[in-house]
Amino acid sequence: MPQVPQTFDALAVRTWCGLALEALGRAREEIDAINVYPVADGDTGTNLYLTMESAATAVEAVFAGYGEAGGRPGLADAAGAMAHGALLGARGNSGTILAQLLRGMAQRLDGARVGGPELRLALRRAADLAREAVAHPVEGTVLSVASAAADAVEAVEGDCAAVALAAYEGARAALAATPGQLEVLRRAGVVDAGGRGLVAVLGALVETLTGQSPARVGVETHPVFEGGCAEPGPAFEVIYLLEAGDAAVARLRERLDGLGDSLVVVGGDGLWNVHVHVDDAGAAVEAGVEAGRPYRIRITHFGTGRPTRERAPRAVVAVVPGEGLAALCEGAGATTVLARAGEPPASGELVDAVRRAHAHEVVLLPNDAELRHTAAAAAEQARTEGVRVAVIPTRSAVQGIAALAVHQPERRFDEDVVAMTSAAGATRYAEVAVAERQSWTMAGICQAGDVLGLIEGDVAVIGADVAGTAEGVLARMLSAGGELVTLVVGAGVPEGLVARLETYVRESYLAVDTVVHDGGGQGSLLLIGVE
Predict the structure, then answer these.
(1) C-alpha distances in Å from residue 417, one per residue of 30, 149, 191, 376
(2) How many CB atoms neighbour CB 385 within 10 A?
(3) Helices assigned H by DSSP within 134-225
(4) Model pTM greater than 0.90?
(5) Measured by CB atoms within 10 angstroms of the end CB, which terminus of the chain is less buried, N or C?
(6) Beta bridge mates, 362
(7) Residues 208, 15 contacting (CB under 8 angstroms)
(8) CA 216 → CA 203, 213, 247, distances in Å?
(9) Across 289-303, 476-490, 492-506, least confident range
């Protein structure tokens, strides 16, 4: 039998996240099928998977960062990354609660390594914190399963493996009891979907600490049930991340509690994930605006009682770096995935976008060279679900805009992909950004605060001001010819810059046109495309 840890450390967190993600991936369809509470929208398994994927990605990023320096993260770093990643990627009611459970765990996993007693405290803190986050806790849900897991380990004397196994067994027994606690589950003949997901996550913890899956240590998994129906409820699910203080969030809870139900607010230290079911989605978002700065806003119509929507013949899914470009691409008919600076989307988010596009054929535009492998993994997953997917290797949003401009869904799929690929490939791209630190570049040494002009990903111009640097970039790009310049303007661009650059192009290159788009909150000051 392989060596397994007797204590819980950073490597155990990493292993647990990976095994939990695998377990949720295997159980995703089953969990989706039994999802009848609080809304029978069939996505609890998917939401749990995407939330865990975000947590696992954050942990891997921490290990990679320490690895570059020749070190390894401590337990607190790894557990904190797990909790933060889950908070950022939390999806749906179940995913939001899972994020809070992981946050509670992280608050007690703060030593170099912990043993059985500390793991017991972590499980109790997780259950209590999750229950506090729900405006009106309901028994027979994942909250009951989490509390049962914590209760089951109270008297356990032993190492982390013994604690994990007791928690799993307690959770499994509580899951089997959920139909007797919640009428909607009893009528449908199912256990709670969120609780089923938590059992999978705790099963992964057992495997991390024993080297064996629960089925091989004498614990049977719960049987699969067929789905049923649920009571009608609010029309919309609203989720957003929120930057706000504690006092503002307390007022927000009160207001959202009056607007709808299934209210869960998790997080802390100025960053929160807000989830609520309402009939007035606009009012829920406005409440967030009054409390602080909401972003990554997701509004989903439950569509209870509506006929199943027919799949479209073809759709485009585009990753975009700002709200302005999201609006532009959505106006052209694309389904978008928002990527903020330092927060690249995970493959699960791209798969989810493909599902939302609801088409037989999908063209995927990653619009970032770093997302090439992520997009490929998402496409492979979508193909297993019967969707024909082609990934166009766009490395910048301006290449994506060019590809979208020539998209014609009435063409044969292969012809459309070739045309979009050709348009993207014919578009040279650049960006103007501010250096965060001193570093060596292809254009020489830059200092923090210098303005950098990057062409095709390499620093080509180092300047003192945005306008001069942008003109230098345009001069280099247009020296090779071009008919159209695309400028995508981000936040913080100096006043008058766009007019100056339009004048520069018009007076210096008579046959070249310029088009300007508002990029919203994108990471770069300016994106430039020349085609």
Answers:
(1) 35, 51, 44, 15
(2) 11
(3) 142-152, 160-181, 183-188, 193-210
(4) no
(5) N
(6) 315, 389
(7) yes
(8) 11, 5, 48
(9) 289-303
